[in-house]
Amino acid sequence: MSVRTRVILLLVGCLGGASSSALAQAGSSDRWEIEVHGGGAWFGTPSTATTALPSPGDPFVTVTGRPSRIVSSWYFGDGAALFNEWAAAFTIVPRLQRMTSLDPVLTQSATKFSNNGSVGLRVGRRLTPRLTAEVSADFRPSRLELSQTALDGIEASRASFENAWKEELGSGLANSGFVNAVVSSTSDIDNGSGGQIVTVGALTVRLRHDGPLVPYATGGLGAAFNQGRAPSVTLKGHYTMSPSFNPLAMFDESDTVVVQFARPNRALVGMFGGGFTYDVSRRHGVRVDFRVQMSPNQLDTLVSASPFVKTGTPAVSTSSATTPTVVFSNRGPSFPETLSGQAITAFRTRQGSGVQFETALTVGYFVRF
Question: How many other C-beta atoms can be found within 10 angstroms of the C-beta atom of residue 202?
């Protein structure tokens, strides 16, 4: 072999070694990846839960021998049931209006997280040619909101309170009616506020080793942090009237119900999904990512009730000649009165169980370094 040939082969070997070294260094220097992305999130509506309503109040018998029960509210539970039994007992002058109970709102799925966009950041480090560890953080302006079915149920209950009591008090009870009756029923709905931050640590497996288009599968664990207020509803029913046998006396009763829809401030999140990356160059590319996230369903419904019966003079009481009957009185706690049940505080009518599912689709731009 001539000297010239040996020199050429030596140069080629040096260049090849330098090239291989450069590629190796480039490969080791591109282990990190940072990405910004945006997209949308869609939440499922979990239906599994444990439900309950407050127990019926104590029964009692009027001085005329008619049965009645103590209730804490006319809007829901045994109070709404008693009102409708009472209205059905009027046969000579039928009562057509009935109380639309709030029970379905209290015991069925009444809330859901709003579907919304999302923005986020993802940082990853390549562990092997196929395996990457990454951490992501996403913000979604999704808040817990009332469903349309729940809103319709709340309005039906509010309106029925006013209509049913106007009929009962305006048309008289048996032989002892009422005069100067005034009835109102209002609702105050707080739609809530806030958003959600989700952080997840995951492992990503590349399903192809080379080429610009690389599909992958991913899975991991993290946490969701809910911000802001959950929605709530306040219903206020009020009626005043005087018995026709003593127009100087006054009955004044109020029925206030607060419904709260609770969700945890934070929850554990499991995630699985996949997608693909497309390399625009060695250091830059785009990613399309689809994920399914799972967390415990902890959406609860709580109800509170605050009945109020005003005392006054002249002190009187009255009830209808029906079975069952409803007693009105301004004599005070010592005299049995139907709307004189104990206040109810944050009674849990629905406790969520099972799994809350969420799907998210994002498109991102990443840089390797």
Answer: 20
Token digits for 65? 């021998």
CB atoms within 10 A of CB 47: 11
Domain span holding position 269: 30-368
Return the H-helix or E-strand segment holding 269.
strand 266-279
Angstrom distance (rounded) from CA 233 to CA 179: 32
What Å distances lie between residue 355 and 50, 122, 170, 200, 349, CA to CA?
14, 26, 50, 18, 19
Residue 96, in any domain of the structure: yes
The gap between the terminal CA atoms of the chain, to the nearest Å, is 45
Q: 2 lies in a domain?
A: no
Nearby residues of 135 by Cβ (< 8 Å), 6 or more positions away: 122, 123, 124, 199, 200, 201, 202
Q: Distance between CA 145 and CA 226 in Å, rounded?
A: 13
Q: Residue 10 above 80 pLDDT?
A: no
Q: Quote the number of domains for the chain.
A: 1
Identity of the residue numbered 110: A
Q: How far is CA 135 from CA 73, 120, 122, 218, 220, in A?
A: 50, 11, 6, 12, 9
Q: Specify the DSSP class assigned to residue 156.
A: H
> Using CA atoms, how far apart are residues 222 and 267, in angstroms rounded to an integer?
9
What is the H or E stretch that residue 87 is in?
helix 77-88
Asked if pLDDT for residue 176 goes beyond 60, the answer is no
Question: What CATH number did the domain enclosing 337 receive?
Answer: 2.40.160.20
pLDDT band for position 73 (cuts 50, 70, 90): very high
Tell me the whole-structure pTM to 2 decimals: 0.85
DSSP 8-state secondary structure symbol assigned to residue 97: -
Confirm whether 3 is domain-assigned. Answer: no
For the stretch 291-317, pLDDT in tens is: 999 999 999 999 999 999 999 999 999
Three-state DSSP class for 12?
A: helix
Query: Does residue 21 lie within any of the structural domains?
Result: no
pLDDT digits (tens, 9 = 90+) for 229-285: 999 999 999 999 999 899 999 999 999 999 999 999 999 999 999 999 999 999 999
Q: Specify the DSSP class assigned to residue 74.
A: S
Two tokens, residue 1: 């072999």
